[in-house]
Description:
With 376 residues, the protein is mainly alpha-helical. The chain has 17 helices and no strands. The protein has helices spanning 10-17, 24-49, 54-59, 63-66, 70-74, 80-96, 101-129, 139-146, 150-153, 163-180, 186-206, 209-215, 220-235, 239-260, 269-288, 298-327, 332-367. The longest helix is centred in the last third of the chain and has 36 residues, at 332-367. The termini are far apart.
Amino acid sequence: MSxxxxxxxxSPAKIAVAPAPSGRRHTRLLALDGLRLAAALMxxxxxxxxxxxxxxxxxxxxxxxxxxxxxxxxxxGCLGVEFFFVISGFVICMSSWGRxxxxxxxxxxxxxxxxxxxxxxxxxxxxxxxPAVVHAVRADEFLVNLTMLQQPLGAPRVLGVCWTLWVEVxxxxxxxxxxxxxxxxYRRVVLFCSVxxxxxxxxxxxxxxxxxxxxxxxYAPYFIGGLALYLVHRFxxxxxxxxxxxxxxxxxxxxxTQGLWHADAPRNPYAxxxxxxxxxAAVAAVAAGWTRWAAWPWLTTAGALTYPFYLVHEHLGxxxxxxxxxxxxxxxxxxxxxxxxxxxxxxxxxxxxxxxPLGPRLKRSLKSAPPAADRA
Length: 376
């Protein structure tokens, strides 16, 4: 198969700029917004009803006893992270096309940090009010967390979910330095996917902390699948990107099953494979244009809430569960639904009063150039 850039499929690109409100790319983005929130709710369900640990103390017993039926499905909610990574590969490839490295860097910083900083402050405040749910960290550890580099520096995490952000940041760095810097093209994305796949397979066989840190074999297939699916979205049904998607799906099945079959809770390996397959299939449906009917305006709001909701739902959700269920005696199901609704409401506040005003300002400030006399 040749790496020559295929002819652009006429429908995705041309319809996207057409004045009609039902443009194909617009509806696809709305569908992706819905998928992002679905992935976040999967992870939320896992943290509230599918695992033990701190949440068991908030419920005053293991969630499997509180929700004997729901918990059997909630244990698979952790696969929402892999779902996120497939979506992330698609979105990053789409958003970086035609952008410079500086544009890419500014957009990522403005997107990630404002809500993240607010979530750190909120969770740290909760740790002072109810340390049984959230353990407070020292001032130096908190400051390191502000950089989003706490894991490589060995500092405790304020946000439990931020380990996935460290994975995302490494993906951004790999993609930015090898694809965005020289300019995003079909050929470069295909080459990036191919080389990263080979490196992930070899590093799985060879092992080693450095290859694990850089290559991320446990997560690479999901990002690669998302990147290739965006090529399908942009260039149409070409055999090569679909082949990359198929290979990444196979490797993703292996990684997920190997890592989660006997992890923190018993899981059926076939159920794990089914959830991973559905994640790929959902994004593939968007790439193939099968979700053009999903054009509801509320999906835009759903997408906007996803990131702040993901940041705050875990520790603050456990805090709310403990107060409602153990403190006020609210029954389990109303507590669960009320906690999810509260976290969504908090996410809306963060989006409305933090992300919307501060994100663009941060992006503009990073673009400010020094005086001409001081430029090297």
